[in-house]
Amino acid sequence: MNAQDLDEWIGNIASGDRQALSKAITLVESRRGTDRELASRLIRILPSRSKPALRIGLTGPPGVGKSTLVEALGVFLTDQGNRLAVLTVDPSSAISGGSILGDKTRMAELSRRENAFIRPSPTGAYLGGTARQTREAILLCEAAGYDIVLVETAGTGQNEYLVSTMTDITVLLGLPGSGDALQGIKRGIMEWADVIVVHKADDPNDPRVREALRDLGAAAHFLETRPHGHPRRVVAVSALLGNGLEELWKVICEVRDVLLEKNLLYALRAEQLVGAYRERLKEDLLESLLGRKGVASYLSDRERELREGKISPEEAAETTRAFIFASNSK
Ligand SMILES: Nc1nc2c(ncn2[C@@H]2O[C@H](COP(=O)(O)OP(=O)(O)OP(=O)(O)O)[C@@H](O)[C@H]2O)c(=O)[nH]1
Ligand SMILES: [Mg+2]
After folding, report:
1. Ligand 1 center to residue 80 CA distance, Å?
2. Nearest atom, ligand 1, residue 71 CA
3. How far is the CA of 262 from the centre of ligand 1 (A)?
4. What's the pLDDT score for residue 38?
5. Which residues are near ligand 1 (CB < 6 Å)?
6. What pLDDT score does 159 carry?
7. Burial class for 50, CB neighbours closer than 10 Å (0-12, 13-18, 19+)
8. Ligand 1, atom 13: closest residue by C-alpha
9. Radius of gyration of the chain, Cα coordinates, nearest whole angstrom
């Protein structure tokens, strides 16, 4: 594809051609070498926007109601005239299957809207490459003029953290539960959240909802503050009944305003890029060093010695490092 074709493609994306956008997302999802090369060229020449889109990550355990909330919040936002893109990143879809169908039915009304674009992750496509693919898909949606990009990802430990490294605001969902304040949510994960949602709060007066709000509010207090300094907020929401949607959006806007007023949005994004670079470099270095001739067998020899109790893990690591760098300088 020549430079002119690429320019034309980008022009089509920018003018709101959904097919051109979908095709570009498929390209960045591909792991084929030639596709990667083309995707990098495409991403590199995307025009920058004068007004940044708001990137929101929505995460929480499977079944907590993320897609239902995306639909409800999405309808609410598009009704207000916003243009909204939704990316669902489902690392478990390869196992559970059928998530595309599930999301389509769960977002039935939103998917009919002219100013909404929904892109479910194809089965397994994001496995192993979630961060880069999602980051690039976000950039493409922004180039297509969407003002808000929502990224839904099912929480499986690492993912809550990952989504917070590529969005401006992270919303964490959990269920009110007896005993544990928020079912399915570990305290450590709350660190990455800007907003915490006690979900399926169909009855706001339900004692479990009130207890969860109180406990989480107190817990959030003791966590280290987010870099923007705005306190974490806890909101009760029922996507099914539409309770708390306005409150949730208000709270998200508060965080957005702090990021904009304190000029932190671009600083945050810049740090995210630096973080992505470091991660990527680590992976690449590891891969190329471990892929060197003789390294694999050297490693398995050390592992055998470890199992036989002949060396300590520290010794094994130290000699392995020396071996790799000695063979590296040859
Ligand atoms: N009572 C109640 N049920 C809800 C609410 N929101 C969602 N649900 C139900 O919870 C179930 C799971 O909803 P989803 O939106 O698919 O949940 P999810 O978090 O997207 O699930 P995964 O994508 O599989 O991780 C569905 O049966 C929804 O109808 C709510 O506010 N109240
Ligand atoms: Mg879902």
Report:
1. 24
2. 15
3. 35
4. 94
5. 62-68, 106, 154, 199-200, 202, 238-240
6. 67
7. exposed
8. 65
9. 22
- For atom 17 of ligand 1, the residue with the nearest CA is 65
Tokens of 195: 């907003």
Phi-psi region of 117 (alpha: psi -120 to 50; beta: other; left: phi over 0): beta
Q: Using alpha carbons only, what angle is made at residue 176 by residues 68 and 170, rounded to the nearest 5 degrees?
A: 55
CA of 197 to the centre of ligand 2 (A): 15
Ligand 1 atom closest to the Cα of residue 60 is 19
Check residue 125 and give its pLDDT.
Answer: 44
Ligand 1 centroid, distance to 53 Cα (angstroms): 27
Interval between CA 63 and ligand 1 midpoint (Å): 5
pLDDT recorded at residue 126: 45
Residue with CA closest to ligand 1 atom 2: 200
Helices (H), the chain: 3-14, 18-29, 33-44, 66-79, 93-96, 99-106, 108-111, 130-143, 158-164, 187-190, 207-222, 245-261, 265-290, 295-307, 313-329
Do the strands 84-89 and 169-176 form a parallel or antiparallel pair, or are they unpaired?
unpaired
DSSP structural state of residue 239:
T
pTM to 2 decimals? 0.88
Contact between residue 222 and residue 187 where contact means Cβ atoms under 8 Å apart: no
**What are the chain's domains?**
1-47 (1.20.5), 49-263 (3.40.50.300), 275-329 (no CATH)
Mean pLDDT, the chain cut into blocks of 10 residues (330 residues total): 91 95 92 90 90 93 91 96 91 49 72 92 53 90 96 76 90 76 66 91 91 84 77 93 97 94 92 92 88 91 96 96 77
